[in-house]
């Protein structure tokens, strides 16, 4: 696999085109992040920690420092670097560079000043309520466009595999920048699906992917549906009802949607300030995306069209969808509570249903 070369230019090209990314030295990243100081840490994911940093020119960066690895993880790194280096879209977080020195593997991105959607919906920024309805619609459409680009225009096409709120970052204008599609595998053109390792986060995982490890674009559509419901309602993908029962966001929202009670689905933090027609659109699109049957989900291009309200015909078909007439009794998708602390899944065709609403920072890749 050819990687680490895309940022360099041959002599002919020099002066014509600016390289899109560059190699950073470890020394430069140490000094930018104050030696990966704990105070600079933005968070921790399945593959390592992310630190805020500032370069000599004043620009702000986010550095993902991958955990010490095995050869397997080394492959993950090269995959991410190559993919990110190639793909550019207004709603995809692009790579600024990388560093590979000794045992260290680091990826450098632009720092997103408004952090992630997760931080606004459930974490450190949730009390500020800066996500008004307009911003939420813009994030919904923007992230759908980013994923649609991965599925349809990137060469080869890319399945994200880990669409979730912490992977939707927000720039200074609150535009969505979808991140971490670099851990996805590349689908050869023409292939409809690939069977490979299950990788994703519980609550967002399409059932067929969780059970059979069959990844396809429609798995991303499912996760995107969960993300849309989360964005509209401010609720988590899985909520604890009591010590033994957890309820999925779809089990909560579907009966309300069937009864036309869309305003009850809206995030209370919106203070009833939303466009009702758009809210209904977002909720219904979200629910068809998260249909347990993959063949009944729309594709991401249709999702973009629907969210933008461009296709009245397709939307009225959705309104008539049987999903909204009869629905399974509540509790159909209830999952047993589990004491394990990881919500990240990365295992050879094997899924451990793990939930971690309380200790997200402590999760481990398994
Ligand atoms: N460029 C960035 N700007 C600002 N915050 C970022 C940036 N990149 C990542 N983060 C934040 O840093 C934290 C850790 O990110 P990381 O991607 O390692 O974990 P994650 O998204 O929670 O899980 P996963 O490993 O599945 O992607 C997240 O809260 C993420 O939103
Ligand atoms: Mg991430």
From TrEMBL:
> Transferase: is it a keyword of this entry?
yes
Q: Where is the Protein kinase domain?
A: 36-315
Record-listed ATP binding positions: 64
**Matches recorded under Pfam families:** PK_Tyr_Ser-Thr
Identify a single GO molecular function assigned to this protein.
protein serine/threonine kinase activity
Alphabetic keyword roster = ATP-binding, Kinase, Nucleotide-binding, Serine/threonine-protein kinase, Transferase
Give me the stretches of Basic and acidic residues compositional bias. 346-366
Using the UniProt annotation, give all residue ranges assigned to the region (Disordered): 333-366
Per its UniProt record, what SUPFAM superfamilies does this chain match? Answer: Protein kinase-like (PK-like)
Query: What domain of life?
Result: Eukaryota
Family stated for the protein in its record: Belongs to the protein kinase superfamily.
The protein, known as? PTI1-like tyrosine-protein kinase
């Amino acid at each position: 696999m050819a990687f680490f070369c895309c940022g360099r230019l041959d002599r002919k090209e020099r002066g014509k085109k600016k390289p899109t990314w560059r190699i950073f030295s470890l020394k430069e990243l140490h000094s930018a992040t104050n030696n990966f100081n704990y105070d600079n840490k933005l968070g921790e994911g399945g593959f390592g920690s992310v630190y805020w940093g500032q370069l000599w020119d004043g620009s702000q960066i986010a550095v993902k420092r991958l955990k010490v690895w095995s050869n397997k993880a080394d492959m993950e790194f090269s995959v991410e670097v190559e993919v990110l280096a190639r793909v550019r879209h207004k709603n995809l977080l692009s790579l600024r560079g990388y560093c590979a020195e000794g045992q260290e593997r680091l990826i450098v991105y632009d720092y997103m000043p408004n952090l992630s959607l997760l931080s606004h919906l459930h974490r450190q920024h949730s009390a500020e309520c800066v996500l008004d309805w307009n911003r939420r619609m813009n994030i919904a459409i923007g992230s759908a466009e980013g994923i649609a680009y991965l599925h349809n225009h990137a060469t080869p096409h890319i399945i994200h595999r880990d669409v979730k709120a912490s992977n939707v970052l927000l720039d200074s204008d609150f535009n969505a920048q979808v991140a971490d599609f670099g851990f996805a595998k590349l689908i050869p053109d023409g292939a409809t699906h690939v069977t490979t390792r299950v990788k994703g986060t519980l609550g967002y995982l399409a059932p067929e992917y969780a059970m059979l490890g069959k990844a396809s674009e429609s798995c991303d559509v499912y996760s995107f549906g969960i993300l849309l419901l989360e964005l509209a309602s401010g609720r988590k993908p899985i909520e604890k009802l009591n010590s033994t029962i957890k309820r999925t966001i779809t089990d909560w929202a579907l009966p309300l949607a069937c009864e036309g009670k869309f305003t009850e689905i809206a995030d209370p933090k919106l203070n009833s300030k939303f466009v009702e027609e758009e809210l209904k659109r977002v909720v219904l699109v979200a629910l068809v995306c998260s249909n347990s049957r993959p063949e009944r989900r729309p594709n991401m291009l249709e999702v973009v069209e629907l969210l933008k309200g461009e296709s009245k015909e397709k939307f009225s078909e959705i309104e008539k969808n049987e999903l909204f007439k009869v629905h399974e009794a509540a509790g159909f998708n209830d999952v047993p509570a589990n004491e394990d602390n990881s919500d990240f899944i990365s295992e050879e065709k094997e899924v451990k249903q793990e939930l971690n609403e309380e200790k997200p920072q402590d999760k481990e890749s398994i």
